[in-house]
Amino acid sequence: METARDRCVIVHYHEISLKRGNRPLFLRRLQQNLVRALEDLGAPRVTQLTGRIVLEPPPGADPEVVVERLRHVFGVANLALAERTGTSLEELKRGVDRVTQGRTFASFRITARRAFKTLPHTSVELNRELGAHVLGRHATRVDLEQSELNIHVEVLPGQAFVYGGRRPGPGGLPVGVSGTVAALLSGGIDSPVAAWRLMKRGCRVVFVHFHSVPYLPDDSIRKARDLAERLTRWQYYSRLSLVPFGEIQRSVVLAVPGPARVVIYRRLMMRIAEALGRRAGAAALVTGDSLGQVASQTLQNLACIEGAAGLPVLRPLIGMDKLEITAQAQVLGTFETSIEPDADCCTLFVPKHPGTRVSREEAAAMEARLDVAALVAQGVEGAREETIAFPPGSGPYPAKENREARAAGSRPR
Fold first, then answer.
1. What angle do CA 217, 219, 222 make, to 5 degrees?
2. Measured in whole angstroms, how far is the alpha carbon of residue 198 from the centre of its chain?
3. Digit-coded pLDDT (tens) for 82-107
4. DSSP code of 6?
5. Contact 302, 289 (CB under 8 A)
6. CATH number at residue 90
7. What CATH number is associated with residue 227?
8. Based on the structure, what is the number of domains in the chain?
């Protein structure tokens, strides 16, 4: 007889299995993140098995909501709602019946994998026996190439799992295993995608947004919050620093010729973001730069801007064009927010013809006219920090998890 515990979510991972010495840490973090994603739904029961994680949904939780939440957990290659059964042929048949109950499918196949080698039936025999069982109960046919329903059967020591089709996860590495980075988050299309790509590589991302209130409306702040909230669905807890940049820009305008201003602005942003990032334990900065997309993103200007930072600058979009970046933003759901009209700090005090080849020597000469240290301190001290959590109401990561994340980020793999 089927019980509530017969229904479970079976989670497969891929890249984590290649990590050898770090695999236990990565799997522990993946399990923590799976539980965190469901925090407001209740406490699931999580079991680590060979090559897979089995999660029993919290009592009363909608299984479809659970699966959709878990599809946003980095490190998950694919997952499925499964029926847990015994390993005998009759029990497997009953599991197949539960998976196919109420379904109409023109074609199907059985994909059986037998990790339990002492089972009397081989994988081929299981495919044949279970396939014949389905044909005896449904008006359908076998199609091994393009089946409408693929019934997976995974036989392990003492138990088996039967499910009809896998749903893709995002892949990558669990958030928290690669340390922390600080992302410069504008209200545009590119920077949210860049931040997301670093999350996929296991980084926790803290966000730094520069605005020009009161010189400009606060639309860009609202957009930055909206984008950070959407991205927090992938890492569960975020810090957003809102930096007033208008007065700093005004100081630059009074001292720096028009063509070099954008580069000087961005060098100051790098310094401020680095100072704020270091407070959060960030080991690198992240930008949404794409080579040649705008004047500040020429090779020479990028080198000049990066020279102001003491931390490494990561540019995950550097070789992507606007169409590719836009397509990913649409998939993430950040595109519609990013294209809402606003006036961000990039539109304030910007010359009509910004320079495309500002050297480090030229930038240093321009900055000699400024009190750079005071301007950086002004930005850092004026920053307002906000926290965002998903699910809403959950808190920051425990101190132990933060220590593990920092250790993992500095450990060779």
1. 135
2. 7
3. 999 999 999 999 999 999 999 999 99
4. G
5. yes
6. 3.30.2130.30
7. 3.40.50.620
8. 2
User: How far, in Å, CA of 108 to CA of 275, rounded?
Assistant: 58
- Is there a domain that residue 309 lies in? yes
Q: Kindly give, in sequence order, each residue whose CB lies less than 8 Å from that of residue 307, ignoring residues fewer than 6 positions away.
A: 267, 360, 363
Residues 52 and 127 in one domain: yes
- At which of 168, 198, 217 does a domain end? 168
Structural domain including 100 reads: 4-168
Residue 35, helix vs strand vs coil: helix
Q: Model-level pTM?
A: 0.89
Give residue 57's identity as a one-letter amino acid code: P
Which of 146, 168, 190 is the last residue before a domain boundary? Answer: 168
Which has the closest alpha carbon to 165: 81, 71, 75, 83? 81
Predicted pLDDT of residue 343: 64
pLDDT digits (tens, 9 = 90+) for 17-35: 887 778 899 999 999 999 9
156-184 as b/e: b if 16+ CB within 10 A: beeebbbbbebeebeebbbbbbbbbbbbb
pLDDT digits (tens, 9 = 90+) for 236-250: 999 999 999 999 999
| Cβ neighbours for 248, distance < 8 A, ≥ 6 positions apart | 268, 375, 378, 379
